[in-house]
């Protein structure tokens, strides 16, 4: 019985998602109003369509689990530091060689200092060094790929 109910929900969802592809911006804004209960923000049609599709999927499948909601809330409250995040004490020096240049970062109470300039995150420093987006903790060797802790 559960399997047929899930098949029905999935079929209805797929039909609704297909229908979204045919809607113009005004109709998508009406869908937004119906699904979110407030006026749609000024978004491009693709972003609007994606947000409405997300809400439909969320309603069909229940959204985020309570555990994930709790972890996200904790991350917001702690500035992104969660149980798996590296904890660095002020005064710690991080050293990384990149393209034959050694870079030294000093951990301070409210961020990091690199080349005499304060940064809020290691990711911002890694971006400055490499010119591309990197996870700062990964770039400086504090975590391994796939989020595994180093230590």
UniProtKB/TrEMBL annotation:
It comes from the Bacteria. Pfam families: DUF2924. InterPro entries: DUF2924. This is DUF2924 family protein.
